[in-house]
Amino acid sequence: MQNTEFLKKAEDSKPILYTETVCIPGRTEPMKDGDEAVFDFGNHYVGYPEITFETVGHHPDAPLYFEVQFAEIAEELDQDTDSYNGWISRSWIQKEAVHMDVLPGTYRFERRYAFRYVRIRILSVSGNYSVVVKELKADTVTSADDAALVKVPFTGKDKRLDEVSVRTLRSCMQDVFEDGPKRDRRLWLGDLRLEALADYETYRNYGLVKRCLYLFAGSTLADGRLANNMFMAPEVECDDQTMFDYTLFFINTLWDYWSHSRDTATLRDLEPVCMRQYELLKECFDEDDLLDMNKAGNVFIDWNFQLDKQASGQAVYIYALKDLVKIRSELGKDTDELIREIERKTEAAKSLYDAEKGVFISGPGKQISLASQVWMVLAGVTNQETGQAVMENALQQNAVGMNSPYAYHHYIQALIETGQKDKAYREMHVYWGGMIERGTDTFWELYNPADPSSSPYGGIVVHSFCHAWSCTPAYFLRKYFRPQENQ
Amino acid sequence: MQNTEFLKKAEDSKPILYTETVCIPGRTEPMKDGDEAVFDFGNHYVGYPEITFETVGHHPDAPLYFEVQFAEIAEELDQDTDSYNGWISRSWIQKEAVHMDVLPGTYRFERRYAFRYVRIRILSVSGNYSVVVKELKADTVTSADDAALVKVPFTGKDKRLDEVSVRTLRSCMQDVFEDGPKRDRRLWLGDLRLEALADYETYRNYGLVKRCLYLFAGSTLADGRLANNMFMAPEVECDDQTMFDYTLFFINTLWDYWSHSRDTATLRDLEPVCMRQYELLKECFDEDDLLDMNKAGNVFIDWNFQLDKQASGQAVYIYALKDLVKIRSELGKDTDELIREIERKTEAAKSLYDAEKGVFISGPGKQISLASQVWMVLAGVTNQETGQAVMENALQQNAVGMNSPYAYHHYIQALIETGQKDKAYREMHVYWGGMIERGTDTFWELYNPADPSSSPYGGIVVHSFCHAWSCTPAYFLRKYFRPQENQ
Fold it and tell me: Distance of alpha carbon B37 from its chain centroid, rounded?
């Protein structure tokens, strides 16, 4: 269902794309068939590369045929791309084979890539000439305004943690808040919420958040349900997939946006969209006010098929409705029904608490997971003391852990909200710091400290190594760990 | 050595490129990873193809990665391109792998290809969608004006022979007379001469011949020697390679051009260029007035490393000088020296005649080849009767034969000039007709009737199947075998 008024407002908030041309020298050695070289742009960029070739020998009498691979981290270049056969399309691998007819000359790639490293392999020249890679350039793009970046004088490991977070956000800020500039290059609701939180502390591009909110509201499923992600091309269109939690996060994202921007016109425009989600999703509960997973459909929470998501989903619902109450209050609208709904669902949530084990359990298997505890904390189902206890108890009982940086974000937030700032700080540095130790300029879609090379997709070559949902250390550091507090 | 005045005249004669958009339907079956289909444009074209894809299933959530191969003849598609490892660069193989980010949509290739057939193989989509090839289009280009084509009412096998010849020429007529629009896409002197002969009987694009003559004259080696071929990009520049016979053919090409165009200004401009070639190449003879192969350097004659080229080269020199006499006579210039030179070299050529065997021999090994006889005929070293005899005698003595359509052209011409029109007609139909029988729309760079799949390059996938020097049946048919004479 398209809402042209909303899509018009999204279009009106289209961001400026800042372009910067970055340029690195090539190398002087002439290259023939089979020769290869890796070039390093020195940081993570998103943009349109070009490669300038010169020639040595006779006049080129045959096209140059070369292969190029763009990589966000050096490790991508070590992967055997030909053998990749995972369930994420191999079309995401940033590798091209190119014929160039006129030499010397510059080949400009029309596709956008996300990269720091570029490997060039000569597939074929002719017996009469060799090529020299003279220079690599890229017209890089981002809608992050470097001049607007809020400067905070972090030092030491905080400095790098912040830098890499900010770089991650910067590379994901394009025409929309993308999930990852390598993959999926798409607007996802779950990523948007975290990117917006980081943005408010860094680039403060409120217009881009507004645009994304209107995009989601501007193209929905037939019944008004928000999709979990949006396609921008060939035209704006929502995906036909939904997730229970992502849908609800629209409410929180809108409230966060208003809290920073005080843009009441947008709040008023989009409040009915929030109410529509509530109306649709309140039907997903059973007679005991507990989330019915058959009705809820997909609930994301974490990149983890083993995770039982009933308890977390229940909590996300409460978490979202609390912001919906704030939205309607701000607009002077009635909130009685919502408050009663929150009470009922909170009571039901408490029934998931296993007093003996001291944790919230989830689903028919009574699964103990860290995610369940974290979300009960974030939803305010527990007080601070209980919240701290359920997380600790869960960890002591071999709870199902967190897999993704996205889930880790919520764990860090829950630690902070239960008064464990020091632990939050340490855990953040251990987890995201682990990626830094492995050499990166941006934070990753997936990171398993116990097995950093593992991939749920069947190969890390399709992983996004600059992923929006991983950018929130900048938010935590800037909101909770500013130098004056921390030093 | 650049002559800017000549290059300016070449630029002024730049041809109109006629464009025609041809369009063929795709197919309705959805395609997934590994699926492939071949599409047939129905005739040989040169141009910029585009492929329009639609999708089936969910909204595309990953790029389309597909491979496409353009082929002049269907047999090219059967070749294992990966295993090709010949000495002609594999960069000539018209095969690309392409990522397309926005679907449905049209991918337009920026490179020019020569093709009738297009094979599309899907390398990767995603689990969420399939693609349908909806349509293939190509903006085709040629500097041949179809409206200007001289129509001759050929019938039967003559009709097809003429059609395929004309199509070959048409596809080679681009910004210059190319040798082949797939490979090398370049202006070669040897090909130019034959293309011009066919052009005078068909499209009559005299301007394009003029342009090519000025291009050769406009960029030469330091001593004024004409290169055997010219590069057009990134700027006009002669190759640093020469061939004795190709250099001399500039003279014949100029005279042929004047004979048809009566463009005396060009004749006057370029006569000194011809004289310069004569001055340079007259030094390539020994004290007996025989061609010294160490001084002559490369002599082409045929695509045949076994062929001894002394006798042929001697004859080509005489052949060229005879046209130089005509050029200078037309311009009222002195020709005495040239006539004496022709007489001396003709006498010397006659010394290569082996009276016992009844053939001209060549080189220290006294090789008997058909090419030697053919060129002695064309140079007028023999009279008609002797000419006929030496060719027949050579064939009866297991002479080294003709390999290329280029060499065959001269054999056919020699048969005609020795009064053997019927044999010429039959031989032409046997040789070029053999390519037609194998299914082609254009004539080939190389064709060995005894072993049509053989390749001196190490694989036919790099062969040019539309090659200028193979287009002359249209010239022969139209000049010597017009319907009223032949039926």
Answer: 31
ipTM exceeds 0.90, yes or no: yes
Question: Identity (one letter) of the amino acid at A322?
Answer: K
- Specify the pLDDT at position A486: 46
Interchain pair A97, B102: CB under 8 A: no
What pLDDT, in 10s, does the model give residues B421-444?
Answer: 999 999 999 999 999 999 999 999
pTM, whole model, 2 decimals?
A: 0.96
Task: Kindly report, as residue ranges, where domains of CATH 1.50.10.10 are found in chain A.
Answer: 146-486
**For residue B126, what are its two tokens?**
């995603």
Burial class (CB in 10 A: 0-12, 13-18, 19+), A104: middle
Chain B residues near residue A231 by CB distance under 8 angstroms: 59, 61
What would the two tokens of residue B289 be? 């007035």
Structure token pair of residue A411:
């764990």
3.30.70.20, 3.40.190.10, 3.30.70.3340, 1.50.10.10: which CATH number matches B146-486?
Answer: 1.50.10.10
Q: Which of A417, A485, A483 is closest to A161 using CA atoms?
A: A483
CA-wise closest residue to B417 among B374, B364, B367: B374
Angstrom distance (rounded) from CA B399 to CA B359:
10
Residues of chain B with CATH 2.60.120.260: 18-142
Residue of B nearest to A187 (CA): B61
Pairing relation of β-strands B36-57 and A95-100? unpaired
Name the minimum distance, in Å, from the CA of A62 to any CA of chain B: 7
pLDDT digits (tens, 9 = 90+) for B87-127: 999 999 999 999 999 999 999 999 999 999 999 999 999 99
Say how far apart CA A125 and CA A60 lie, in whole Å: 8
Pick among 3.30.930.10, 2.60.120.260, 3.90.960.10, 3.40.980.10: CATH of B18-142: 2.60.120.260
Among B70, B54, B41, smallest CA distance to B136 is for B41
CA distances (Å), origin B176, targets A64, B229, B353:
22, 12, 40
- Contacts of residue B122 in chain A, CB cutoff 8 Å? none
E runs forming strands in A83-225: 95-100, 105-108, 113-124, 129-142, 187-188
Q: CB-based contact (8 Å) between A235 and chain B?
A: no
Interval B439-464 mean pLDDT: 94
Name every residue whose Cβ is closer than 8 Å to that of residue B255 and which is 6 or more positions away in sequence.
B323, B324, B326, B327
Angle between helix axes A244-261 and A206-218 (nearest 10 degrees) is 140
Q: What share of chain B is helix, strand, coil (3-state, %, to 5)?
A: 45, 20, 35
How many whole angstroms separate alpha carbon B249 and alpha carbon B190?
A: 7
Going by pLDDT thresholds of 50, 70 and 90, the confidence category of residue B486 is: very low
Sign for the CA dihedral angle at A202, A207, A212, A216 comes to positive
